[in-house]
């Protein structure tokens, strides 16, 4: 058994194959309370998600009860719902639905980042409906075209979010991180979160890996663009998502460490937060494996740095009580 196989097998043992964490007395998860800043939930009887593939492993319901089972024993005490790219006509219904979830104090979901058509003129009236709402913390809308990042409507709407004390999640491909930095600079009073480590591909950092495909970007360009973005002090980085790009049973600290370490070092301990990206993360491994691998990566960092990553920074950034 090589080191990668050992780490993955250890993670699977700790998580009980993604269900219940069998924590030992000195396990690092015992010492940290976790805020999950990237929780997805969906009921396909209620909402339409056009990005789901017919017959795909994610094309089923993922409900609160499923999330509670997946997070059992992991130390996750609070979760922030992340929009799930429903069809445009259901954006309002999705927001109203998650507000009701947050109002129910019996579950861990306490806040939300909602979807919104931020490139449209109608966005202003849409988002003003949630002005002052204690549960709506921000907006996300995927941006995958460089022309979108230069759209004046986008810039104006992002500035509007700043006046409402709402944030914006940057969901961009690696090749647009540099352009995103220019956008962030133009909206200095708005807080941004770079999702999923800038959608970095672990394969780009180790050419000895054989995953049957080519890397999705150049590692050096990603590093340089990430460094440029991090110079803007109104953006933080979400340590999430990258495990979904790893083939089943291939996720280890060795594979994911180059991305995580560069993000932590570049943004610094005060500007990083943890996200599960559940259930999308399960494309690569169960949530417990992702959590355990991340703990392995940050093992050598101080307890205070880990506390900031997993709990403190999210509390401050999202204004959680």
> How would you sum up the global shape?
globular
Count all strands and give the number. 8
By CATH, the superfamily comes out as Metal-dependent hydrolases
Low-pLDDT ranges: 1-29
Mean pLDDT score, rounded?
91
* Quaternary organisation of the protein chains: single chain
Tally of structural domains: 1
Helical proportion, percent range: 25-40%
Describe the sheet with the most strands: 8 strands, parallel
Arrangement of strands in the largest sheet: 1-2-3-4-5-6-7-8
Percent strand equals 5-15%
**CA(first)-CA(last) distance:** 45 Å
Number of helices: 12
CATH class: Alpha Beta
CA-atom Rg in angstroms: 19 Å
Which series of helices and strands comes N to C? HEHEHEHEHHEHEHHEHEHH
CATH architecture: Alpha-Beta Barrel
* CATH topology heading: TIM Barrel
Q: What structural class results from the helix and strand content?
A: alpha/beta
